[in-house]
Amino acid sequence: MNFTITLLPGDGIGPEVIAEAVRVLDVVAGKYNHRFNFIERLMGGCSIDRYGSSLTDETLADCQSADAVLLGAVGGPKWDDPAAKDRPERGLLALRKGLGVFANLRPVKVYPALADSSPLKPEQLQGVDILVVRELTGGLYFGQPKTRETMNGRVRAVDTLEYYDYEIRRVVELAFSLAKGRRKKVTSVDKANVLESSRLWRQIAAQVGGENPEVELEHTLVDTAAMRLITAPARLDVVVTENMFGDILTDEASVLAGSMGMLPSASLSESALGLYEPVHGSAPDIAGQGIANPLGAILSAALMLRHSFHLEREASSIENAVDAALNAGCRTADLGGTLSTRRMTDEIISRI
Ligand code: IPM
Ligand code: MG
């Protein structure tokens, strides 16, 4: 089959890891007789430097017309000025909104071979297999007003946490349908003891739970959830939560996996079009050295094959190759190893 993929390598280590994901995809295309057409565009800091905008209309259009978008990472100290008119992160948020990708799937899997890369005790990590479903186009990140003003010599800053019922329902419904293919448990995370938006969240989650009695639903406050993620992670299956809670909890969850560099993500819309990106950032401290862990990007490419192209066998072939390479002891620096980004990818490719 023939697919068009828009690549947004972005900043820092983004281009390094996306180049490796593309090599893996080319191998998969050859082996299973597909054609992946890549269109590469700038987004983030590199786009500010070139066009004066972190995401141009043309680039957004090239993403909207593709079958999927594969993104590296954006940002870096060069664009961190708080007074700047545009920031790399604005481009990323505009892209998510522009693609309508309301659900961000962040699977957190502990590979037994990596159990000692995590600061947690190995017995706590046994059987950890969590799927965080983070709401991605609503909440505090997008609510209006979002302003700053000076009143009577005092500076006041405002962000708005807002959710519509339909925004909550569609992401919670997706979490339930994903749970049916897993261990049939959904943990809905909110702050319903304080926030009105969380009370609406909980009410709708309970309704969706009532419509799906075969799936067990538990409601957990976000502070408790943060603790349980570390004390009893194996008890979690699908976790569904609003945008900012999901942002924070998934960085915490990455500690279970041993390295942020391991985690992939898939952002899904109402159509087949999806946005795929590793959870890690642009890592300016190691950019350009060729030592970044490519697995987050490579596993994101696998999620793209599964969710946007429905190529399950091809997706599994990548995931199995990653398993096998880790079991054979292949490690990049973040996991205490010595393999370069490219050599690590060679190890995956030789196992596909
Ligand atoms: C993430 C990142 C982004 C977010 C930033 C870069 C805007 O932290 O994807 O988790 O907060 O969504
Ligand atoms: Mg984050």
Describe this structure in words.
40% of the residues lie in helices and 21% in strands. The protein has 352 residues and is α/β, with parallel strands linked by helices. The chain folds into 2 domains: 1-102 and 263-352, 3-Layer(aba) Sandwich (Isopropylmalate Dehydrogenase), CATH 3.40.718; 119-257, Isopropylmalate Dehydrogenase (3-Layer(aba) Sandwich), CATH 3.40.718. Strands 2-1-3-12-11-4-5-10-8-9 form a 10-stranded mixed beta sheet, with helices on both faces. Helix 1 runs parallel beside helix 12. It is globular and about 60 Å long. It binds 3-isopropylmalic acid (IPM) and magnesium ion. 3-isopropylmalic acid binds at residues 75, 89, 92, 247.
Give the arrangement of secondary structure elements:
Layout: E1 2-10, H1 14-32, E2 35-40, H2 45-51, H3 57-64, E3 68-73, H4 88-99, E4 103-109, H5 122-125, E5 129-135, E6 143-151, E7 154-160, H6 165-180, E8 185-190, H7 196-211, E9 216-221, H8 222-231, E10 238-241, H9 243-254, E11 266-268, E12 274-276, H10 295-307, H11 312-327, H12 341-349
Parallel strand pairs: 1-2, 1-3, 3-12, 5-10, 8-9, 8-10
Antiparallel strand pairs: 4-5, 4-11, 6-7, 11-12
